[in-house]
Amino acid sequence: MAKIDAFFKLMHEYQASDLHLLVGSPPILRIHGELQKVKYKVLDEAELKPMLYEIITEYQMKIFEETGDLDFAYEVPGLARYRANYFMHKKGIGAAFREIPHQIKTIDELHLPQVLKSMAMLPKGFVLVTGPTGSGKSTTLAAIIDYANERRKARIITIEDPIEFVHPHKNCIITHREVGTHTKSFAAALRSALREDPDIILVGEIRDLETARLAMEAAATGHLVFSTLHTIGATKTVERIVEMFPTDEQNLTRSLLADVIRGIISQTLFKRVDKPGRVAALEIMVGTYGVRNLIRENKTHQLSSLIQTGKRYGMQTLDDAIMDLLGRGWIDPEDAYLNAIDKSKFKSFLKHIPKDFTEV
Questions:
Q1: Is 12 a domain residue?
Q2: Residue 339 and residue 268: Cα distance in Å, rounded?
């Protein structure tokens, strides 16, 4: 057993999502969204560096020493998998670990809207899960893929950096590919995937123009493609995709995106107040004819109105999702207010309205 595994066991025991190990600081856990120091001595380079180097290969060590950064996945058998990032900082070496549970939670266990089950069963199209870092995008995607895995007979290919949730074969055949280990890039893996008889392709993240283009082309040729973006809201997501492309290609990109888009899920994570844990509020845009037409005609500013009136299709605004969680007594009214789009709807739940200097 590696020496660092003791910290992962502690992390699991406290239900922490992240572990931070830095020279010049004691170990720190993120528990239900809040950082808490572990009762342990301040780490120094002589202790931390061998501890971190014990769980990587010589090749990974070489990359880290040449670049000062390293991303990889690490597994403690019987406990969990971890997404790891090593980095250098002013005081020395550092690392951050995110726990990826072995047990994949279902859509129902995560209290996600039922329309996500319909998206898992789509024959083709492009579905994006968006939100800031740490908002639970990977967990939501894993639940969707798991639903498809149980109810479809399909070939699923995941392309990630690094591999996070590992899906067992149920009714589907699933292949996991890791960028940097099994393939050079997302784009290279996408090109290869199209020759591997896929029905569903999961692209861990749309990072560049080439990956965006290939993902949409894969959806246009009859595949169901899922991916993520670090954007907030359906409108911003559409605009971000289009803005990746050169100006002279943007009209064509809008047309292609309008043809293939089937859903955009944008989520914000909240700390629960009724019990330990966190819960996501989701804005959902379903790619109806009206939605696709607005994208094609470059009228994305009108998408919010269609989301508000599209409840019968499974659409919902972020504010409606937040209001639902608040009504259940799951989240703090002040937290709801600070994350809402139309804050006036949430003022009546507050004893004192918190000041936000950015809105003065």
A1: yes
A2: 8
